[in-house]
Amino acid sequence: MTTDLRVLEASEWDRWFGTLERAFGGALVSSPEQREMWRSVTEYERSIGVWDGDECVGTAGAFTFGLSVPGGGVVSAAGVTMVSVAATHRRRGILTSMMRRQLDDVRAWGQSVALLTASEPEIYGRFGYGVGTRQLSAEIDTSRVSVKVPSAPGDGGDGGPRLRYVAPDDAREAIESVYARLVASRPGMLERRPGWDRKLLIDPPETREGASALQCVLARRGEGDDAETVGYALFRIKPTWDSAGPKGTVVVDQVAALDPVTYATVWRFLAEIDLTSTVSASNLPVDDPIQFLVSDVRRAGLRVRDSLHVRLVEVGAALAARAYQAPVDVVFEVDDAFCPWNEGRWRLTGDEKGASCERTADAADLSLSVRELATMYLGDTSPAALERAGLVRELRPGALTEASIAFASPVAPWLPHGF
To answer: Residue 409: is it exposed, middle or buried by C-beta count within 10 angstroms (0-12/13-18/19+)?
Structure first.
């Protein structure tokens, strides 16, 4: 078989995207608006296809994102996306060739980190990707569970924000303003580039699964022209009735707020919507406040799964791009067969103000693969946890504790939306 791997041309997009849709069962998008959104955000010069004659048999792309990292910084990252291989051309090395080309390109673009969300996580570990963030889901029985709203300092408990229904499209600017202010506060969040606000609000009826059209509530403080949006919720109502009466579900897309009182106020509103008895949310941070605000955590139906997968393309630049919670001076012995330029020893020195990471001939303190280094990069998983799994080796006594404290994040990393 002779195939041609090349950069995508705009005129080829429909065939390229059609290959991707077929690989995902033909149900990747359900409306012309969704399809046009994906076309509009495609970065053609960062997308590749594999062609067998005139037939597209492999696809892969990359978006340009700003990724928040521990310490409040943002690094340029490649968001790997739209990866597929035609079922007729499996096990012929096509995926490996695309991953090889893509990581070489990411390095040439000067980006030290690649990201993806995996349909099948086991595929990408062999290319050096590790689970960098996880997500919490909740299925809260609001017929039995209440949500507590804490008092703001000095307000006597009555200083909460005002909530108002707003048409989602009319709330777009306010939503993006709140989101942008939150990005640096939590590792793993993505700066939204132009066009991504459309993805959040596209609402084709075919995707609602019996729920209502998308609804939006804004939380505001202040009066008149001085009022400020400090939070929002995007959600749907899925009505259900049985012989005992209404048992509808509030299906939460996103909840965000700039302060704890607003966050709890919005959640209490969702939990008390008439004719419903369940609030369902599929993507929350693993340290989300809602689990501490509910009156009965066992009836909150909490579950955790993997979310963002991270790949360090340039180890030195990636580790130097984040800050560290405590002073650290550790030499890593890194194994990276797929990107051999990362292999060898790297000395990381840094603290909460910044860091440097350079090659060194000094003796190694910790030995690990680039996949484990990616897993601990955003602070979700500690080196000590990986050592207990046999995936990190401590070569200098004390180095494991030093690195585990330094790599930690005071808030759990989280990816708020897919790509």
So the answer is: buried
Q: What whole-number distance in Å separates Cα of residue 316 and Cα of residue 345? A: 10
43 close to 62: Cβ distance less than 8 angstroms: yes
- Predicted local confidence at residue 244, as pLDDT: 82
- DSSP class of residue 410 equals S
Query: Is the predicted pLDDT of residue 156 greater than 50, yes or no?
Result: no
**Residues 69-106 pLDDT 10s:** 999 999 999 999 999 999 999 999 999 999 999 999 99
Which residues are annotated as catalytic? 124, 419
Token pair listed for 25: 């069962």
What is the per-residue DSSP string for 66-134? EEE-TTS-EEEEEEEEEEEE-GGGTTSSHHHHHHHHHHHHHHHTT--EEEEE-SSGGGTGGGT-EE--E
Q: Is the pLDDT of residue 159 over 70?
A: no
Owner of token pair 């990747």: 28
How far is it, in rounded angstroms, from Cα 153 to Cα 135?
30
